[in-house]
Structure to design on (415 residues):
C-alpha cells in the first residue's frame, strides 16, 4: 500500500493502525483502490453515512443517546459521532475514558461497566472527572462509596443500578448471567444508593441484536416496579444497547423502528418530564458507518477463496452473531459485476476455524489480487481484531461513498 495510508498506531486497539484525520480521504471506494492498491485490510469510515445514520436515529429516538465506545473505538468514528451531535459516551475502561477525553474533552462519560478495580474507580473520578457509574451488586456500590469518601459532593454523582435481563435473546449474546441484579437486590441497592447521598437511576441491556421491542417494554415495566417499591425518585432509565444492525434479513428501516418503539414504550410507562430516557447503542450506531476492503490472497481450483482478513480479525462476530454482510467486488478497472457462484471463504491464518459460516456469491472471474468490500462492519469489527499468526494490522481511510451508503435509501425507513 502507498505511504499515504501509513498512519501512526493508536494507543487503543490490538494492532489497528488509525488516526482521526483526513490524511487518507477518498470520494469512493474505487478511488481508494486505484490510488492505494491496499495489501492490508482497510477500514473505510464514511462521514456522510455517519451524519445520515445518526440523524435518522435521532428522528426515531429524540432522547439522550450515548455511543457505546466498545463497539467501535476508532478515533474517526468517535469524532464523527460528536460532530453529528453526540455528546455522551458509554465507556467501559480507563483506556476508553482517556480516548474519549482526548478526542472530545467536554463530553459526558458514563462508566457503565459495573466491574471496576479500585484503581480504575480512582482514575475515573479524579483523573477524568467521571460522575456517572453503573453497579449491579452491593460490593460495587461500596467500592464507589469508599473512593468518593468526603472528597466529592455525592449528589453530583449518579449511580445507575443495572437490572438482570430476563431471558437470553436468541439473536445474540447472553446477558442473563454475567451482569445485573435481580429485582430484590436491585430494590435494596437503589435504596442504599439514596441513603449514601448519590443520585439514583436504573439501567439494563436486553441482549445483542434484539429485534423484539417487547423485551425492552418488559424491562421498562420491571424498572417502574423497582422504582415504585424502593420509593426512590430515580432521575433516568437507560435502556442500554442491543438495538439491531440491519444485517441480512432485517431492513434498515425496520432496525430504526426499534428506536421508535422503545421511545413509545417508555412514554407509556414513565413520565418523560420527570425521568430522562437514555440508550447506549454500539453495534446499531456504528455498523453502517464503516466498511472494510479486503484482498484475495489465494483461490483454490474449486473456487474457494482466502482473504487477508478473517475470523481472528474484523469478522470475529461471525462466531457469535447470525449475520450476513453486504459485499462488492473490485479491481482497479472498476466494480466486478457478472455471473457468480457460491464459494467458501477463509481468512489468512493457519487455524481451521478461520472460515466464514456461510458461502459467498463471488464473480466467476474473480482473481487473486482483487478486492472485496464488506459493509456494516463498524459494529465490533474494528474492536475485536487480534494479532494471531502476526495478522491484525489495518489501515484507516475516510471514504465518503461506501457500500453502506446504499442502505439509507431503503423504502422502509420511517419518516
Amino acid at each position: 500500500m502507498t505511504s499515504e495510508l501509513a498512519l501512526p498506531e493508536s494507543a487503543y486497539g490490538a494492532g489497528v493502525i488509525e488516526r482521526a484525520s483526513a490524511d487518507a480521504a477518498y470520494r469512493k471506494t474505487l478511488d481508494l483502490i486505484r490510488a492505494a492498491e491496499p495489501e492490508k485490510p482497510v477500514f473505510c469510515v464514511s462521514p456522510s453515512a455517519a451524519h445520515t445514520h445518526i440523524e435518522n436515529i435521532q428522528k426515531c429516538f429524540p432522547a439522550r443517546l450515548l455511543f457505546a465506545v466498545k463497539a467501535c473505538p476508532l478515533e474517526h468514528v468517535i469524532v464523527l459521532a460528536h460532530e453529528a451531535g453526540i455528546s455522551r459516551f458509554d465507556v467501559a475502561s480507563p483506556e476508553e475514558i482517556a480516548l474519549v477525553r482526548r478526542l472530545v474533552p467536554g463530553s459526558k462519560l458514563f462508566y457503565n461497566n459495573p466491574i471496576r478495580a479500585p484503581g480504575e474507580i480512582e482514575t475515573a473520578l479524579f483523573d477524568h472527572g467521571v460522575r456517572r457509574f453503573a453497579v449491579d451488586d452491593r460490593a460495587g456500590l461500596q467500592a464507589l462509596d469508599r473512593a468518593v469518601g468526603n472528597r466529592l459532593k455525592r449528589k453530583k454523582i449518579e449511580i445507575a443500578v443495572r437490572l438482570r435481563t430476563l431471558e437470553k435473546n436468541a439473536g445474540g449474546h447472553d446477558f442473563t448471567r454475567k451482569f445485573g441484579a435481580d429485582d430484590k437486590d436491585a430494590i435494596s441497592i437503589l435504596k442504599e444508593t439514596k441513603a449514601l447521598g448519590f443520585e439514583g437511576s436504573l439501567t439494563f441491556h436486553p441482549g445483542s441484536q434484539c429485534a423484539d421491542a417487547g423485551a425492552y417494554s418488559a424491562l421498562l415495566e420491571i424498572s417502574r416496579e423497582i422504582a415504585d417499591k424502593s420509593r426512590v425518585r430515580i432521575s433516568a432509565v437507560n435502556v442500554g444497547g442491543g438495538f439491531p444492525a440491519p444485517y441480512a434479513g432485517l431492513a434498515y428501516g425496520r432496525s430504526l423502528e426499534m428506536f421508535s418503539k422503545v421511545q413509545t414504550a417508555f412514554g407509556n410507562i414513565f413520565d418523560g418530564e420527570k425521568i430522562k430516557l437514555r440508550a447506549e447503542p454500539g453495534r446499531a450506531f456504528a455498523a453502517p458507518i464503516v466498511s472494510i476492503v479486503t484482498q484475495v490472497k489465494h483461490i483454490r481450483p474449486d473456487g474457494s477463496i482466502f482473504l487477508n482478513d478473517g475470523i481472528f480479525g474484523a469478522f470475529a462476530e461471525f462466531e457469535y452473531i447470525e449475520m450476513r454482510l453486504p459485499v462488492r467486488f473490485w479491481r482497479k478497472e472498476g466494480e466486478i459485476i457478472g455471473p457468480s457462484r457460491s464459494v467458501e471463504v477463509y481468512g489468512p491464518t493457519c487455524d481451521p476455524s478461520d472460515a466464514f459460516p456461510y458461502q459467498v456469491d463471488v464473480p466467476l472471474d474473480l482473481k487473486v489480487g482483487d478486492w472485496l468490500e464488506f459493509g456494516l462492519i463498524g459494529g465490533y469489527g474494528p474492536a475485536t481484531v487480534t494479532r494471531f499468526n502476526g495478522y491484525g494490522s489495518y489501515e484507516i481511510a475516510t471514504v465518503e461513498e461506501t457500500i453502506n451508503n446504499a442502505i439509507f435509501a431503503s423504502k422502509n425507513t420511517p419518516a
In short: The chain has a mean pLDDT of 91. The radius of gyration is 22 Å.
